Amino acid sequence: MTARAGAALTAAPPLAWPGPPPPEAAAVVIGGGIVGLMSALFLAERGVRTVLLEKGRIGAEQSGRNWGWLRAQGRDPAELPLMIEAHRLWDRLDAETGRALGLRRTGVLFTADSPRRMAGYEGWLGVARAHGLDTRALSGAEVAAMLPAAARRWEGGLWTPSDGRAEPGPAMAALARLAAARGVRLVEGCAARTLDLAAGRVAGVVTEAGRIAAPAVVLAGGAWSSLLLRNHGVAIPQLSVLATVAATGPLPPVFDGCASDRSFAFRRRADGGYTLAPSARHEVLLGPDSFRHVAAWRGHLRDELRGSRVLPWAPRGFPDGWTTRRRWTAEGKSPFEAMRVLDPRPHGRTVAWLRAAFSALFPALGTVAIARAWGGMIDSLPDVVPVIDDVPALPGLTLATGMSGHGFGIGPAVGRVVADLVTGRAPGHDLARFRFGRFSDGSQLAPGPTI
């Protein structure tokens, strides 16, 4: 498999937020994905002069490439309160952006093809009830009534009508405009090369355009976070997997919400088409970190590899590529400047399989045409929950990474929590499961729900 390194910025349309960065700020956020953008927005709302740095374009990586689901259903019990808050924040942000996020509460449906899988769904109902969700188990007949055009039948399902969907690309653009209006200084095409350290703590960021002095830095770099940390002698067992996603052209409606079975998932898009993706089939791209962190991943490795395609190398320039530099100085170019946008190629056979599977499930649609397909790198941690914490070895640095495919949905709440951590406020949630030290304090890593 080869990879596209993202179009050169000079060959693409002009940057929406070209900078330059200021020489100083009260806080710097590294990473223009949903988590970084929301962290910056909430910091600005707290009166903190904030600069957001993005090496390429805001929302150009996983935050603009995900499925677009806003899902509380099936979440880890520790993550669920964040998602419940995120639902409220999505409603608020949608109103503040003039309904530009594509937000719709159309529900999330998981179908079960066996009594065993149905029992797993029913086992999560206790978590849902404890948090006041409207989730309920469905019979096979009820699932059939929700999917009347489907050519197959299921044992049952799990349904949360208050869950919803948004359009990742338009949403990220609208949220960037909102953040700028709130006072965030957005700077695209400007990589943070290193943290600037003084007297044992963070004193700012050294960018390719110069130094920004700041007493607080947030690292929300997604798949790139661990690479920057390692250059400063800090390691976390974060890896990334490549996911393929495809979109159909406009089609007659077969289901208005988001749905998933054991093999693939789909959701209705605002343009009348459907976004299709495998439920759990990824491409695992091996690199130095894959072997360095094998002990931490051992308990989750079997689930991660089931149905996945393993390649012996991550492409050149990727965060875990074999030739990607792990050490560099502030004076020289960093790996972040070598690859402005992490733009992996989708797997062609997976795209063909998705087309065939969706066409077979809804035969009345005929042979479905794929309008476009893309790949995205999902930053993951062994227990399938993120790190949201200050970094003890680097005082002044707050880390929010390893969203494990959940970042788009929970992003607004994570950003609000990060802003409170930076400003010394109580975060309002129990963050013990998301602590930085869980990988080194002898704790047993327990993966979250796999339903």
Polypeptide structure, described:
The protein contains 11 helices and 23 strands. A hairpin with a 5-residue loop joins strand 16 and strand 17 (274-278). The chain folds into 2 domains: 15-107 and 162-439, FAD/NAD(P)-binding domain (3-Layer(bba) Sandwich); 108-161, no CATH class. It is α/β, with parallel strands linked by helices and 451 residues long. It is 28% helix and 24% strand. Mean pLDDT is 94; it is low at 1-11. The longest helix has 17 residues, at 80-96.
What are its keywords?
globular, FAD/NAD(P)-binding domain, 451 residues, 11 helices, disordered N terminus, 28% helix, six-stranded mixed beta sheet
CATH superfamily of the largest domain: FAD/NAD(P)-binding domain
Q: Report Rg.
A: 21 Å
Taken from the alpha-carbon principal axes, the silhouette is globular
Q: Structural class per helix/strand content?
A: alpha/beta
Number of helices: 11
Return the domain count. Answer: 2
Average pLDDT figure: 94
Low-confidence parts lasting 5 or more residues at pLDDT below 50?
A: 1-11
Helix fraction by DSSP (H/I, runs of at least 4): 25-40%
Number of strand elements: 23
Spatial gap, N to C terminus: 30 Å
CATH topology description of the largest domain: FAD/NAD(P)-binding domain
Q: Label the CATH architecture of the largest domain.
A: 3-Layer(bba) Sandwich
The first-level CATH class of the largest domain is given as Alpha Beta
Largest sheet: 10 strands, mixed
- Strand fraction equals 15-25%
